[in-house]
């Protein structure tokens, strides 16, 4: 496979560099140049030795984009009673939404927008999977309590209850449209077994039990009706092909791979990742897969199993492109830092089995040329032919979108007469117009969001309250929001004396809030100054005393608040310690000299105004080779005013 076929939207290679967890003295010199010395060869383009490679072009790209949403803001949202986890658009024009409290709703796509159809309580426990049949006539939910429900989507009816006797992990309809039996494959959370049920059967006894396809629990299955093929992925990183009929092996099709070693299906195992989502293209000749935890989006050829595209959406790639200014669009540093903190929270708390990040998926447009998936910047629309991000949907929203469903069809398909076509009736034109809509869930939100085309009015009523607000909702949205008052002074009581501080809440409100809240909660009590460098600074705030610990009051790193009005241009500056941009936690330091080389790297959030002799007394204590005092210097407590 050529390098062009593996073109990556993001960084290609990254040098490993050790990041300091705290500030360091100014380097002795920074005048070295990495420029090459001596003559350089004539570029190939100039000497005619090599032809300029033609760029790939997608014919009618503009037409494809006109049939996709392009709004920077969502135009409507609807509620569930609890956090949504799945949205699915069926081929019959129905939207199915589920939430973690066991509820499911069916909505019908209209000429413009959607209309609520019916509400079901599918389980008393969480919905862990939602599957729609290939023809869009059936859907099934599976729940953590070991039950499943089968629904007739078109007739809005529940037609079967399944009792598994085990905790299900994933479900997928594995029958072709028009087949005599509606076959539902269900995997087991605690074993590698896959059981196939008759969706209209007794709901207890499986028709088949497959125990040799995988060796680890299967968390993902998709069915290709074109090739009568199931693609499944397990928690060990393996991806398998199998036919949903005996002998349950790879189907013998023209062009289908014969030996798995000739494919790239081991990509996930080799990179120690898993396929978190698999989505077939409309012609089913390709499929996309989002890998976790490295967040790379892969595109495979279905028949050959070869990897044709890889898009790097890792946090490292996003950070590098933000700093270099090569991202699709550049966010304000504070906004980017906030979004990055949410992504790290996702990685830490929501990337495991059952986590919110596992529900993230990618969707194809009807042409099979455009791929849409959610990132920290918004929902990217990638032209997989030219390998470019051609659009970012929802980039003005602060929400972190996860599960997507796309509608592109024209709802009204009645036959037009010649007179109707020749008329200038706006109602007829409206019925013939498309209404492309992207439906999205978001992290920790009990709503799903709809994106369309055009500009959304700034003060439009976007959020529909189709559920009765709970007491929690009233608590979150008070009648008159109370303005948060932050302290402007603090005193550090040490075993060497008191240090009086003036705080800058108007310049660094989040940093001051973090420091003051920790102080009030006793987080800094008896914490040592673990790093002291004479004629530079004293650093503390790590409860472990190692310089590697401590966290913010929010439990995750938060963004820098760099201000040109507060610099390290004088001694006694109070500043936040970090391990790089937007990685602030609980540690802080007080300078003993001017340190202008720290400007732009650390957040200044105060100055010492009293107890300066205490600062110098601490500065002059004996330390070891790691700058740690031989005798502990402790903060007994911190008082904020």
From TrEMBL:
GO terms for cellular component: nucleus. It comes from the Eukaryota. Coiled coil: none annotated. PANTHER family: PEPTIDYL-PROLYL CIS-TRANS ISOMERASE-RELATED (PTHR45625), PEPTIDYLPROLYL ISOMERASE DOMAIN AND WD REPEAT-CONTAINING PROTEIN 1 (PTHR45625:SF4). It comes from Cutaneotrichosporon oleaginosum. InterPro entries: Cyclophilin-like_dom_sf, Cyclophilin-type_PPIase_CS, Cyclophilin-type_PPIase_dom, Cyclophilin_A-like, WD40/YVTN_repeat-like_dom_sf, WD40_repeat_dom_sf, WD40_rpt. This is peptidylprolyl isomerase. Residues 1-17 have a biased composition (Basic and acidic residues). Gene3D superfamilies: Cyclophilin-like, YVTN repeat-like/Quinoprotein amine dehydrogenase.
């Amino acid at each position: 496979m050529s390098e062009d076929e593996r073109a990556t939207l993001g960084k290609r290679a990254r040098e490993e560099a050790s990041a300091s967890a705290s500030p360091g003295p100014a380097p002795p010199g920074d005048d070295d140049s990495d420029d090459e010395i001596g003559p350089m060869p004539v570029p190939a383009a100039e000497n005619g030795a090599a032809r300029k490679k033609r760029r790939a072009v997608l014919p009618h790209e503009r037409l494809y984009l006109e049939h996709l949403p392009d709004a920077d803001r969502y135009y409507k949202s609807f509620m569930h009673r609890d956090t949504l986890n799945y949205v699915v658009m069926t081929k019959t024009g129905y939207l199915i939404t589920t939430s973690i409290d066991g509820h499911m709703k069916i909505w019908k796509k209209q000429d413009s927008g959607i209309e609520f159809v019916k509400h079901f309580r599918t389980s008393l426990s969480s919905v862990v999977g939602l599957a729609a049949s290939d023809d869009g006539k059936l859907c099934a939910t599976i729940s953590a309590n070991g039950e499943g429900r089968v629904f007739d989507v078109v007739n809005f009816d529940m037609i079967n209850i399944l009792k598994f006797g085990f905790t299900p992990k994933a479900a997928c309809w594995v029958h072709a449209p028009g087949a005599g039996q509606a076959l539902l494959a269900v995997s087991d959370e605690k074993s590698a077994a896959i059981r196939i049920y008759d969706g209209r059967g007794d709901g207890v006894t499986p028709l088949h039990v497959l125990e040799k396809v995988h060796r680890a629990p299967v968390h993902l299955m998709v069915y290709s009706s074109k090739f009568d093929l199931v693609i499944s992925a397990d928690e060990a990183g393996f991806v398998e092909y199998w036919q949903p009929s005996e002998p349950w092996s790879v189907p013998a099709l023209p062009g289908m791979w014969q030996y798995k070693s000739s494919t790239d299906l081991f990509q996930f195992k080799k990179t120690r990742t898993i396929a978190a989502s698999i989505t077939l293209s409309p012609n089913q000749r390709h499929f996309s897969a989002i890998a976790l935890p490295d967040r790379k989006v892969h595109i495979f050829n279905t028949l050959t199993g070869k990897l044709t595209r890889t898009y790097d959406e890792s946090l490292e790639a996003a950070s590098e492109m933000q700093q270099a200014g090569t991202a699709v669009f550049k966010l304000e540093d504070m906004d980017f830092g906030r979004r990055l903190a949410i992504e790290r929270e996702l990685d830490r708390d929501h990337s495991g089995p059952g986590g919110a990040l596992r529900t993230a998926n990618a969707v194809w447009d009807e042409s099979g040329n455009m791929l849409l998936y959610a990132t920290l910047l918004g929902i990217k629309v990638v032209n997989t032919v030219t390998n470019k991000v051609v659009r970012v949907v929802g980039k003005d929203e602060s929400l972190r979108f996860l599960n997507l469903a796309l509608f592109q069809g024209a709802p009204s398909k009645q036959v037009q007469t010649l007179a109707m076509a020749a008329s200038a009736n706006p109602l007829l034109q409206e019925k013939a117009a498309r209404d492309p809509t992207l439906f999205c869930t978001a992290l920790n939100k009990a709503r799903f969001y709809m994106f369309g085309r055009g500009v959304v009015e700034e003060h439009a009523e976007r959020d529909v309250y189709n559920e009765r607000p709970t007491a929690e909702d009233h608590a979150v949205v008070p009648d008159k929001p109370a303005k948060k008052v932050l302290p402007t002074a603090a005193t550090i009581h040490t075993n060497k004396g008191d240090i009086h501080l003036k705080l800058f809440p108007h310049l660094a409100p989040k940093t001051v809030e973090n420091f003051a809240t920790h102080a009030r909660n006793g987080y800094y009590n008896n914490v040592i100054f673990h790093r002291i460098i004479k004629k530079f600074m004293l650093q503390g705030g790590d409860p472990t005393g190692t310089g590697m610990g401590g966290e913010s009051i929010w439990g995750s790193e938060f963004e820098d608040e760099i201000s040109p009005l507060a610099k390290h241009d004088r001694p006694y500056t109070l500043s936040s310690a970090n391990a790089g941009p937007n990685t602030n936690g609980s540690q802080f330091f007080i300078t003993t000299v001017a340190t202008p080389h720290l400007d732009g790297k650390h957040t200044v959030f105060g100055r010492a105004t009293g107890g300066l002799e205490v600062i110098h007394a601490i500065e002059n204590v004996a330390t070891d080779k790691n700058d740690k005092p031989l005798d502990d210097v402790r903060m007994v407590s911190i008082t904020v005013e």
